[in-house]
User: Fold this.
Amino acid sequence: MDKKQFSLLSKIDYPSDLRRLKVEQLPEVCQELRQDIINEVSVNPGHFASSLGVVELTVALHYVYNTPDDRIVWDVGHQAYGHKILTGRRDRFCTNRKLHGLRPFPSPLESEYDTFTCGHASNSISAALGMAVAARLEGKQRHVVAVIGDGAMSGGLAFEGLNNVSSTPNDLLIILNDNDMSIDRAVGGMEKYLINLDTNATYNKLRFKASQWLHAKGLLNDDRRKGIIRLNNAIKSAISHQQNIFEGMNVRYFGPFDGHDVKNIVRILQQLKDMKGPKLLHLHTVKGKGYKPAEKSATIWHAPGRFDAATGERFVNDDSGLPPKFQDVFGQTLLELAQQNPRIVGVTPAMPTGCSMNILMKAMPSRTFDVGIAEGHAVTFSAGMAKDGLMPFCNIYSAFAQRAYDNIIHDAALLNLPMVLCLDRAGLVGEDGPTHHGAFDMAALRPIPHLTIASPMDEHELRRLMYTAQLPGKGTFVIRYPRGRGTKVDWHCPLTEIEVGTGRCLRQGQDVAVLTIGPVGNTAEEAISQLGPDYQVAHYDMRFLKPLDEKLLHEVGRRFGRIITVEDGVRNGGMGSAVLEWMDDHGYHPQVVRLGLPDEFVEHGPVADLQRLCGIDAESIKQAILSLLQSDK
Assistant:
């Protein structure tokens, strides 16, 4: 770090160093911290605009609160780069998201300043409330703060937490970071409410003074506090001609305030710090603040890749001549199908750009629904439309679909409703790490009755599966596919039906049978090709996890005494387990080696490195084949 450029930041190793500064020095700290994030992320890509938007809030929180003893619970963690730099990780921040480097999101496994796991949205209020109650019951004088964005506030868990906050004794402070964004622009009733929320500046100043006076008189405790809050709510509703949803839940509301005035945020936090009862501080921030390109295009600069810090020029690789991303094939095919089938609608929980449903959204906005960060609702909403005659394609990242497990069972599969659940980012996703790997979908969904579960090996198979899934009588259909590019430059192909529950033989052999599902089949093909003609290895693309191709499995069971299964999901309970169970049920007893993700959370890093660590790269598959062939020699 350039000590001349970062004269203050270079002296801050931990928040205790920050707290030695005068409040007048904090704007300069913010400027240096913002520049350090820009410099680092420009050469080591990661999440960007979110962290720039909360620089002032981050500095103020660590300045006012005695972290790590006081708890700051971040929601999601896209915005926590400044937090990492201020909490003993500045010298290692260059390893952020790299294999064996700093984790992509805050984690208690990495630092005591990281109070909770925050890879998925909307859990901060619930977790922070649990910490606040724990401190209260143990008699600890500990402050707890939850920082949640306006996008995450749309999640059902956030409302469940708020409901409990209002009825459980606690002194929790909730900070609402309102930047009118999640990744794409935030949507829904909560977002509109926050935009329209009208607060009177004079009223806020008077209330601060009144709160301080009442606190000094001991009148902001227990039952008297609740009565005063109810009176306060009534007065404010009369002044603003509006009921505040937070104060309606007996959570005292303050704001909105400028989230980029660090000295004022410090003053407000100091005033709220020892105030009893649950409180919500509403701050308006700008995503990408302080870096003009990011301020203008926050969605693009959410995770922009490498760029020139001085000019803002993004170093975008020339992808001409390369296969498209699976998500783009999905988006283009969905539009193609929707043009043919007027019953098709698209649903996504806050990821229209991320899953390429923005293609359908642009062409057919009335038939595309971004429901906000609400995965469970996305599934049940889709099920409701399916019940009354529509054909929803509900696209959710595999790791996020875990949050909708009950909805998939209770609201979709139970009635075998005609809808398509598209699980993007299935398998290993790379630098986003264990909170985002799509590791568990096959093992989790396989036991559920009525579901059809398929995984395409390439883009042509994806298109054909999407076409098949929307045909009459297919019920609840799950299609899982990975992040990243496929294998076919010419990805267009006729939209033809694939018979449900059928796999295919890709190459004949007699020594050993390799059974794969999904794109990892391409890796297996590479491994088998490397073995050469001296080894007779058969390769079957199972294509469907449920129902299994029983005709294919009977053939394999009769012909082969040695089988290798390969999948890019957890080995326990996945496709390999399904094959092993089927073989035993039908009286076949081959030697089966199952390759897949281990029974542990896989770290972050480039996908190729993670595949090698998990033993599903081409070399590992080749060695598994050789070991199995040599096992009886």
Notes: The chain has a mean pLDDT of 91. The first strand starts at residue 71 and ends at 74.
